[in-house]
Amino acid sequence: MSEENKAPEETVKPEEPAKTETQSEAPKAEAKPEAPKADAAPEAPKAEATPEAKPAAPKPAAAAKPAAEKAPEPEKEPDPRLIEAQQRLETIKGKIATKFGDAAIEEADVKKITPTLVIKPEYWVDTVEYVKTDPSLLFFYPEAMAGTDYKDKGYIEVFTLLHSFELDYDIALKVRGARDNGSVPSITPIFSGFNWEEREIYDLLGLRFEGHPDLRRIMLEEEWQGHPLRKDYVVMD
Amino acid sequence: MEMFTWLDKPMSGMTFLNMALGAVIVLGFILGVVTYTIYFERKVIGWMQWRIGPNRVGPLGLFQTIADVLKLLIKEDIVPAKADRTMFLIAPIIAFFPSFMVLAVIPFSATHIFTAASNVGVIYYIALSALTIIGVVLGGWASNNKYALIGGMRSAAQMISYEVPLAMSLLAVVLMSGSMNLVEIVEAQKNFPYVWYIVPQFFGFIIFIISATAELNRTPFDLPEAESELVAGYFTEYSGFRFAFYMLAEYVYVFAMSALATTMYFGGWEGPFLPGWLWFAIKVSAFIFFFFWVRATMPRIRTDQLLSFSWKVLIPLALLNLVATAVVMTLV
Amino acid sequence: MAIRTEELLMNIGPQHPSTHGVLRVVVKVDGEIIVDAEPVVGYLHRGTEKLAEDLQYTQIIPYTDRLDYLASMINNHAIVGAVEKAMDLEVPERAEHLRVIVAELQRIASHLVFFGTYLLDLGAMSPFLYVFAEREKIIDLFNRLCGARLTFNYMRVGGVKWDTPEGWVEEAKQFVQHLKKQMDMYHELVTGNEIFLNRVKGIGKFDTETAINFAMSGINLRSTGFNWDLRKNKPYSIYDRFDFDVVVGENGDCYDRYMCHLKEIEQSLRIVEQALDQIPEGPVMGKVPKILRVPAGEYYSAVEGARGELGVYIVSEGKDKPYRLKFRRPSFVNLQLLPKLLVGQSMSNLIAILGAVDIVLGEVDA
């Protein structure tokens, strides 16, 4: 196992070695059953390693939370994960609002424990670019993308999950496009990994992505009528 | 025995009949050998791969190949609509013919019965075996299939490249024995210093065996029919008995090449105690086994690596070997 | 003098021995050099996500078996894990251990198949049969556990369906010891082979930045030297209790991906060994409501699949069926990089590169 946890060029910082070390130490600590506590140790230095622009101050307190999502005590009153997620959401919301104004954010919420922001289509590409490149955020790992048809609300929602290796958590960014002939800007030029995902959403939900380099159906043939994942899709015999 | 000494007789009705009879017997014999070579291959590789191999048709699966060949023979002869029909039909025959003809010069035993003790045996073998390439390229081209075409092209490139070191390594043996007659080469290995040519020509033998594997299109040089890349290579479009012809040609060559190696480097039928033909059979079987063994062990080499290996490594080494042999022969 | 040459358009697949299913790659070749390549997918699209919208959560589990059919157990784990996280359900200790054991055995089986088929792609036939003999032993273990050999449908929300039969744990332990010894043989047979090394070293190389930008995960990402394994980085189930290393490569070429697979088998064996030693007695199903109703909301959770991050995104309206279920299929995502890797390579390298990206078409097409 190599100790190298090298992030792409732009993120390599002097703090990097410290982070790498905690990473490689974690496995040994986790051998014991009381891993949750042991895991908290690597968590704390990591929080300090993050750029100070981020409100790192409240983090050490929250760091006591086990990294394990399956916390043994889900009943305990204020779920520390939830509080943490709330703080993260506020941070990101604040950053985006300062950069693009409040108008850019349609909704902001914590879904389960993931900070989730709905961005207006006009600001979509810029926002994604911003969270990817801003040195205090660096959400540059495109984890997942999914489209959902909200028939009653009249829009199709695109969910993207981005991960920051620097901050070590996920955020979900969303954008909504109209159901009828709707379109949203494509972020494939920013994240090549969303190329096929966007094609799949176009194929199965019928939401167009403006600026996509190669927007064609991917799963179904070109002549296919309709978009199967829409709620009002009628299965043909 | 009078009847079998037709080799140096003038051509008459009787000698012609004898020749025809000899050819048929050799043909039948080879078909039997090939049938059981294929069976042997499947069994041996099966054992090497923790499985049983053919065991259903006949006792121990002994009739498996016969059943396979019969199946191939009665299958429909499919010619793709877009194929070049004439060429498509001729190609397997062109590939198949020379494979049998080369057997004419192989000395199976000390009493040379059906085969020819030709004075140009080595050249004859090399020249005829090269003809097969035409059948392969033609088959690939005429199929009008891209995989087949690439397979055919690869095959041509490969066989031409490896023919050169093969011939050069054989020439070193010719230099040592002073004859191109395969019988005389075997005889020469009986004389002083009483060793088979594998010993003085060990280097040449290595070159020979590598080139021979490539020439036979066998793993690790089975690129022309690289299944994982080209589906089946040049015979992708062939089925039925035309496919069987390609397969037969391939296995006849395995036998012929093993026989050639035995003759050139391992003293042919020479050996103590046992009769000559048995020695020959043992040695040839060992070679055939070697080819199977390699097949079960090695991955496939890449085209460009294959060609550069031939031109940059094997041919210079073969040349060196040839020159060294010549120098030594002059001095001694 | 320039010779006029023509580019050849070739369809590799959908019926081709080395596309591992019904993948089609349209390549333009100039001689044997690829000038353009485009993967065409969708031949195996069954609409799993659409089907799931009409199924109760338990009913979805067998459908996940058919995604990455070489790693059904891990797919099971992904869906039940996602539902459990969404509902904050507790899973009994024994069930958690069993899950880890079967998931890691499945990972081993899957990597073994990679090893075999990859070598088969490269023209070596024997390893394929060797690993299938080993895999057979794992499949037999699973067979005794749940009665199926490929699509296991073993896990349930809140636990696992069956407890171990008599002597199963002992057998599994024996198998772990057996495979540990076998691994050396595989290295001896293949890893040192000059021909093999010549075909995989430096081929299909990409760097971490590309891999991350292309959302790659699993071994494809780790082979570039980037340490990212969900079992460590976002521990789920009880993976944080086991001692194992994350295997990372150096150069991100086919050789590294091959080595990562083999080394990961060794690490998985370590996990299985520990889990088998620690497995407690007790129930294998937790207390779960008869009808599972995921509270309204959106949930994403992921497990480290055999091929990368296998995520499940659930949108629920509080009913017993998901409003929308999306699988983040690692094979599908990883395949995007293929055209970039192929341009300028030869036909033989196509097979080597495609094989090392390690896709399963059931997962690509969902």
TrEMBL record, chain A:
Top-level EC class: translocase
Basic and acidic residues bias spans: 1-19, 27-37, 67-81
Keyword Translocase applies: yes
Residue ranges of domain NADH:ubiquinone oxidoreductase 30kDa subunit in the record: 118-235
Region of interest (Disordered), ranges: 1-81
Keyword check for Oxidoreductase: no
Catalytic activity entry: a quinone + NADH + 5 H(+)(in) = a quinol + NAD(+) + 4 H(+)(out)
EC annotation from Swiss-Prot or TrEMBL: 7.1.1.-
Key words, A-Z: NAD, Quinone, Translocase, Transport
Compositional bias ranges of the Low complexity kind: 52-66
Pfam families documented for this protein: Complex1_30kDa
Role of this protein: NDH-1 shuttles electrons from NADH, via FMN and iron-sulfur (Fe-S) centers, to quinones in the respiratory chain.
Family: Belongs to the complex I 30 kDa subunit family.
Descriptive protein name: NADH-quinone oxidoreductase
Provenance organism: Tumebacillus lacus
UniProtKB/TrEMBL annotation, chain C:
EC number: 7.1.1.-
Broad EC category: translocase
Coiled-coil ranges from the UniProt annotation: none
Main location: membrane
Reaction(s) catalysed (UniProt annotation): a quinone + NADH + 5 H(+)(in) = a quinol + NAD(+) + 4 H(+)(out)
Subcellular localization: Cell membrane
Membrane disposition: Peripheral membrane protein
Pfam families from the UniProt entry: Complex1_49kDa
Residue ranges of every copy of the NADH-quinone oxidoreductase subunit D domain listed in the record: 121-291, 292-365
Gene Ontology MF terms in the entry: NADH dehydrogenase (quinone) (non-electrogenic) activity
Keywords, sorted A to Z: Cell membrane, Membrane, NAD, Oxidoreductase, Quinone, Translocase, Transport
Subunit structure: NDH-1 is composed of 14 different subunits. Subunits NuoB, C, D, E, F, and G constitute the peripheral sector of the complex.
PANTHER family (UniProt xref): NADH DEHYDROGENASE [UBIQUINONE] IRON-SULFUR PROTEIN 2, MITOCHONDRIAL, NADH-UBIQUINONE OXIDOREDUCTASE 49 KDA SUBUNIT
Family: Belongs to the complex I 49 kDa subunit family.
Purpose: NDH-1 shuttles electrons from NADH, via FMN and iron-sulfur (Fe-S) centers, to quinones in the respiratory chain. The immediate electron acceptor for the enzyme in this species is believed to be a menaquinone. Couples the redox reaction to proton translocation (for every two electrons transferred, four hydrogen ions are translocated across the cytoplasmic membrane), and thus conserves the redox energy in a proton gradient.
Entry protein name: NADH-quinone oxidoreductase subunit D
Source organism of the structure: Tumebacillus lacus
